[in-house]
Amino acid sequence: MKRLDEIEALSCVDENSGRVIGRVGGAVISGDGKKLLGLMIRPKRFLSGERFLDFSSVSVIGDVCVLFKKDALKKRGMCPKDRLYIGAGVYGSNGRIIGWYTNAYLDEKSGLVACLEVSIGYIDDFFEGRILISEFSCSGEGIIAMQTGRG
């Protein structure tokens, strides 16, 4: 189980050639919040923009690098539009806002999201920690939490 921010900045290595292509710039979570769609890769070349790496092309997400299959990087415009964004509002089943989506825990082998991490505010985060939401559903307005727990 890994947090998404643990994956960011890992080196991306082509499994055939062993060449480092770039670094992970971010993770793309599906619009329903249930799975990892892919990774945004920042190439080593300075003037090249970020590229999308589909999760099906990822061989291994390790502690020090991400191995991927050859010719898997897609152009920037190929990133899915329907995705979960950091900062999306999280609402309770009664419709009141709980906080904001800040991170996710995922199974790096299957790409499934186990739970979302939610910030209530700076002071509550400091004294009590962030909330982990394991049962949720996503809509255009935000995330609806079904069950919460402290992280």
Structural commentary:
The protein is mostly beta strands. A hairpin with a 4-residue loop joins strand 13 and strand 14. The chain starts with a strand and ends with a strand. The mean pLDDT is 84. Strands 2, 3, 4, 5, 6, 7, 8 and 9 form an 8-stranded mixed sheet that branches. The chain has a 5-stranded mixed β-barrel with strand order 10-11-12-13-14. The chain has helices at residues 4-7, 122-128; strands at residues 2-3, 11-14, 20-30, 36-43, 51-54, 58-61, 65-68, 73-74, 83-84, 89-91, 97-106, 113-119, 131-138, 143-150. 7% of the residues lie in helices and 51% in strands. It has 2 helices and 14 strands, in the order E-H-E-E-E-E-E-E-E-E-E-E-E-H-E-E.
Task: Set out the fold topology.
Elements: E1 2-3, H1 4-7, E2 11-14, E3 20-30, E4 36-43, E5 51-54, E6 58-61, E7 65-68, E8 73-74, E9 83-84, E10 89-91, E11 97-106, E12 113-119, H2 122-128, E13 131-138, E14 143-150
Parallel strand pairs: 2-7, 10-14
Antiparallel strand pairs: 1-11, 2-3, 3-4, 3-9, 4-5, 5-8, 6-7, 10-11, 11-12, 12-13, 13-14
